[in-house]
Amino acid sequence: MDTRVETRRFTLSDAVRGSRLDHVVAGLIPGISRSRLQQWIRSGQVRFGGAVVIKPGLLLLEGGALEVDVELETVVPPAPVAAADLVVVHADRHIVVVDKPAGLLTHRNSARSEPGLADLVVERLGSMGDLGDPLRPGIAHRIDRETSGLLVLGRTDEALRALKDQFRARTVEKTYTALVHGSPRFDTDWIESWLGRSENVRDRIGTLPEGEGRFASTYYETRERFDKYALIAVFPKTGRTHQIRVHMTAAGMPLVGDVLYKPRGRTLPKPPPEAPVMTRHALHAAALTFTHPATGERVSFTAPLAADMDELVQWLRAHAPAQD
């Protein structure tokens, strides 16, 4: 993983009077350990009122402008995927189902941005429906860059529109496989909350009070338990950004390898040095069931667990069985 630095700016009110600096910073930047925050302060990465502050225990006497140089770990994308190497699970005149590798965008974000899976599908199979959006040919839904697994694309505008309607109506059945920290309290459970963008971290989604943001619903089933880890099947009933990652973290089971959604105030155990390393969050879109836009038949597709996740799961089975 690489590390990049992002400066975040806050305006503190006088309500912070009498609070320790490191406690205030910890409240503003969730998911970072207290020891790491203190290290940032001691190394001069925190400024209050325009002046560098190097004492984590400094008591604030008033509000003011706070700046924090936050170190973010970013996953290094794998080598570019060639169109010829793309795994096409199914293709007919109306739809294409592909198994997206981790590290690949679903589609371009702008005309000059890096190519995404949609571009590779066009290169491999020809034009797709785009409903007037040439940057997203065929794209009916998306999964995160680091998430591997199934995507269905529409080859015509009619097929694409029908697929989008199904996702909007929540009639598409989606199954994900996730490797998480901890041991689920229940074998099966529902997680429901309201989600929205974090005010402090632009790329992060957070839980909000009831009625704010957008409602999200997730059901999961525990498939295997290991020592300090678990393999679960996740069935999102809504399709919110980062929904599974946020809900699993909120339930005390953050995804292995997820550097954005680390639980606040909790140090996650690291696998032994000899264990396979996950360089991304351990989430795989394993199955899709939907109505074929041309035939009207209910169809299902599956994709085997991505190689990096499978390697770690196999290692856990052999070396970290669940403790009685």
Quaternary structure type: single chain
What's the CATH first level of the largest domain? Alpha Beta
Order of helices and strands: EHHEEEEEHEHEEEEEHEEH
Q: Kindly report the name of the CATH homologous superfamily of the largest domain.
A: Pseudouridine synthase
**N- and C-termini, Cα separation:** 35 Å
CATH fold-level topology of the largest domain: Pseudouridine synthase
Main beta-sheet annotation? 10 strands, mixed
For the record, the count of structural domains works out to 3
Envelope shape: globular
Mean pLDDT: 90
- Indicate the low-confidence ranges by residue numbers: none
Strand content: 25-35%
Global structural class: alpha+beta
The count of strands amounts to: 14
Task: Round the Cα radius of gyration to an integer and report it.
Answer: 22 Å
Architecture per CATH nomenclature, i.e. the level-2 architecture of the largest domain:
2-Layer Sandwich
- How much helix is in the residues? 10-25%
SS summary, helix count: 6
Brief descriptors of the model:
3 domains; 6 helices; Structural Genomics Hypothetical 15.5 Kd Protein In mrcA-pckA Intergenic Region, Chain A; alpha+beta; Pseudouridine synthase; 324 residues; 10-stranded mixed β-sheet; globular
Brief write-up:
By secondary structure, the chain is α+β, with helices and mostly antiparallel strands. It has helices at 21-28, 34-42, 117-125, 157-169, 243-250, 307-319, and strands at 2-12, 46-48, 51-52, 64-74, 87-91, 95-100, 148-154, 173-181, 188-197, 205-208, 214-225, 229-236, 283-291, 298-302.
Question: Would you write up a description of this structure?
Answer:
The mean pLDDT is 90. Strand 13 and strand 14 form a beta hairpin. This protein has 324 residues and is an alpha+beta fold. Strands 5, 6, 7, 8, 9, 10, 11, 12, 13 and 14 form a 10-stranded mixed β-sheet that branches. Strands 1-4-2-3 form a 4-stranded antiparallel β-sheet. It contains 6 helices and 14 strands.
